[in-house]
């Protein structure tokens, strides 16, 4: 029997949200009564682009090379990592394509100009007012047939196309692609739940509303698959990338470094030079050394970071050096240390603000009422729920890891997959 697969990654959806989803019509019809895990463990740091790349490749961030939402871990202007060319490992789209299957990716992170996504709408952080949305997405690899669909539904998103205002656009484009082209694998990424949590806290009325909207989007894409002629012949998989935790304050790591003389500021208030720099991941911060080969300075930095952790004033709960991060979380790259929160302190990049600042700065998604980027074992946990002919009925498996998604999909689809860190959750499959 020919089967189709839809994967919806509802950003920041957590196991606690399932209680509400189980009361809603589309989840009850298309997801409930299938197979699921108790919860899923994210990657470290638990940020969206690192997590989704891990989900698609089955590999930890150290191997994928996607360590953050930003391209670089230095003090250049923040630039989202959009292009698939930055990913160092092959993914489920490539595996499906090699097996002769067709694929669609709608706002799945880090898929810009992906050669193996047949119907592509890459997630991107918006565009300038003078750049049409379809032109911005064309530059990220959308084909002419997909651009026609984009133009049809573009009115449904906010002008810039940034999450969460574009989520119904994401669902409707996915549904139209399914109806017209019937891809074997469709992967989409709404982020309304994540946006609500950042803006109002982990659990709130706004979060409940966003969960209800998620149910709407489940219905939109699943009804499209039925309309395409695949009723009872498709599998719907609902997953998420990370949880969130409520945040009480923000500590600007680079202001601390400026006080220590590791960041120097000129008379205009701009950075003149730096020896150490912190790049916020929300509840964690990478610490990058300009000259990591300077072992004496690296030792000085590590000692100071651990001293600051012990005094408890800066919100440092734990400091990992590069070796420790690699051993514990499969995380390595162009950083020397990573600082983890004590549980309620988020971290900022700014060197101009006070070292301790109030959060609730909704202009920066990392500094709202809640955030993530923390160690994966903390806080509410991501989900994996699946229903369809490939999956067992009424089955709850043990905890998994988010990078189990790709090998599980491959096994369910009956296609080979690449060597990876994750495992196929075979216990969920028929």
Structure description:
This protein has helices spanning 18-21, 25-30, 48-57, 61-64, 92-98, 133-139, 144-153, 167-181, 192-200, 205-230, 253-259, 295-311, 322-329, 405-413, and strands at residues 4-9, 35-37, 40-41, 103-106, 119-121, 185-188, 234-239, 245-246, 249-252, 263-265, 271-274, 276-280, 284-289, 316-321, 337-341, 345-348, 356-357, 370-371, 384-387, 395-397, 400-401. The chain is α/β, with parallel strands linked by helices. The chain has two domains: 4-244 and 379-428, 3-Layer(aba) Sandwich (Alkaline Phosphatase, subunit A); 248-368, Domain 2, Phosphonoacetate Hydrolase (Gyrase A, domain 2), CATH 3.30.1360.110. The strands form six sheets. An eight-stranded mixed sheet has the order 5-4-6-1-7-19-2-20, with helices on both faces. It has a four-stranded antiparallel sheet with strand order 12-13-15-14. A hairpin with a 3-residue loop joins β12 and β13. α6 (133-139) runs antiparallel to α7 (144-153), α8 (167-181) packs parallel to α10 (205-230) and α9 (192-200) packs antiparallel against α10 (205-230). The two termini are 14 Å apart. The mean pLDDT is 93.
